[in-house]
């Protein structure tokens, strides 16, 4: 194994990378090291590799460290012989990356909800801020439901991968949110897509 991936299974960002490894048959070429950390308790191995302390982080054979899941996915997508999960060029590339970025924005909001509601003492939680984060996710899901469902239903690529990991995180961390009733087309898509072996193998 020539690469080491630092990640936590509960993170939707780390899960994206592991799903990519499964989808591209690269999983045997990467040592997956599970790291337990929070913003209040960073991991020294991760800090030594990535000064920002963020995971996922991918250390290459030459010691180079790649971090931010989007950077890691782009790199891994150059290492396999299957159909690229990120289109190589043209308008399709920018469209898929933009949809993937929207999924990342929803993930970031969901993680912030988790931190605010789980790590901050109840008397110090900011309800308006929590509501705004959830509204951000709801707006983006509505956009996919109305404007991008056909693209999700096409090839499984960087955008659909991101959406699947986002929805898995919502079910895991905010199980009381009945998002399926507001997004029936996405719910139907996710019911099918969630059966992919890569997603079954990486369920948080």
From TrEMBL:
This is Glutathione S-transferase. Keywords: Transferase. It comes from the Bacteria. GO terms for molecular function: transferase activity. GO terms for cellular component: cytoplasm. It comes from Ectopseudomonas oleovorans. Residues 1-84 form the GST N-terminal domain. The keyword Transferase applies.
